[in-house]
Design goal:
The protein is mainly β. It has three helices and 26 strands.
Length: 328
Amino acid sequence: MPAITVDDVLVLPRLPRLDETTSYRPVRRLTTAPSGYEGEGFPVRRAFAGVPMSDLDPFIHLDQMGEVDYAPGEPKGTPWHPHRGFETVTYMIDGIMDHQDSQGGGGTITDGDTQWMTAGSGLLHIEAPPEHLVRSGGLFHGLQLWVNLPRVAKMMPPRYQDIRGRESTLLTTPDGGALIRIIAGEVAGHQGPGSTHTPITIAHVTLQPGAELDLPWRADFNALVYALSGRGTVGTDRRPFQGGQLAVHGPGDALRLTAGGKQDGNTPALDLYLMGGKPIREPVAHYGPFVMNTRAELMQAFEDFQAGKLGVVPAQRLPHTGGQGDRP
C-alpha cells in the first residue's frame, strides 16, 4: 500500500499530546462492508452499507475499490455515467485510473493522488484504467467517497480539483508510530490541500504494529473510520477492528485508534481512512447517480440526462498523461 510515504516519519510535525480532560468519542456502531461489483465488473466493498444516513451526513456513499491484482486483460472501469448534486472524491492507493468528462476535462491519478469532482449541476463522466494497464494487468486499490452538497450549491457549475499525493499534509504522533496524510480539512491546526464546499476532514492513516493514535477531532463534525487493511482496536474500550469494517463514533473531542501488535504478513500495518464533516441536515433524495433534496428534483435530473442536458459522450477518448488540475 504505497500511497504517499516518507523514509523517516520523525522529521514530520507531530500531534500534540492530549490532556486528561479530553473527551474521547465512543464507538456508536461497528459494521462490516459487504462485497459487490461496480461499473464493468470491478470488485468493491460498500463501506456505508446498513448505516443510517443520519450517522453519515454529509457523506452519502463509500466504495473500497479492490484491492485486486489483475492479470493481463482483466482491469475494468466504469461506462459513461451522469452525476448531479454532489461531489466524488476518488483516492488512488495502488494502480492508475484515467477519468474524462463530457465538458472536455480529463486526467490521471495514481499512487496517493486524489481526483475531486464537484458534479454540481451535472455532467457525464467515465473512469477506467489506461490501455497499457489493461494490457499488462497489475495491482489496483482505491476509494471513492460521495460528499453531499447543500441545497445552495447543488446546481453550481462542475469543477475539478487534482490533488497529487505529494501535496497531502503529513503528520505523525509524538512517538512516530503513525503516518497521517491529510487530504482535506484540518487536523490539530494542520490544513490539507483539498478545498471543500461542505466543511469536512479526510485523512489516510497508517499505524505501525502496536502504535496508538489519539487524534483531536472537531466536536461539530461526525467521525467515521474505515479500516482499509490490518487489525487493531477502536475507542477507549478497545473494540476489535479490522479491514473492511466501519466505526461510527458518537460525540466528543478526539478519536483513539490502536494497531494490533501482530499483523498479517501481507498487511504489515493498520491502514485507516478517516472522514468527518459538519452535517448539512437537509432532506436527501438519492437515486443512482443523482443526490438531490426532493423527488421532483430527482425526476428533473433524469429528464435532463435523457434530454442530453448533462452533456454528450465525446467522440474520442482523451490521451491522459497527467492531472486535470483546477478548472471552473
